[in-house]
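User: Can you fold this complex?
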Amino acid sequence: PFVVTENCIKCKYTDCVEVCPVDCFHEGPNFLVIDPDECIDCTLCEPECPIGAIFPEDDVPAGQEAFVELNAELSKSWPVITVRKEPMADAGEWEGKTGKLPLLER
Ligand code: SF4
Ligand code: F3S
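Assistant: Here's the predicted assembly.
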């Protein structure tokens, strides 16, 4: 499956959700995740994210490994999102910043 990683936190551009053929994106307060049990590895979402937050599970960047389990865990409780919405208010300031994991809201 594909995995949403740290750069999405506090940005949440949501371009990714509209291309998923199996509706496996789930939305939290300031982050999105992919349900690994539903993702069919179609690859369509990866290039849609304007800040490169989506990776194949086997190619998650070093230091981002925790996001594999976070996508699996949080997708079970967060609601599905299929329609694009406005990014978070300060998305431009937060994109590309590292160390955002502690800011993840559940
Ligand atoms: Fe959906 Fe395809 Fe992305 Fe998996 S790879 S989350 S199926 S768009
Ligand atoms: Fe997040 Fe990128 Fe989708 S910022 S909401 S993974 S388009």
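The chain has a mean pLDDT of 98. Residues 3 and 41 are 10 Å apart (CA to CA).
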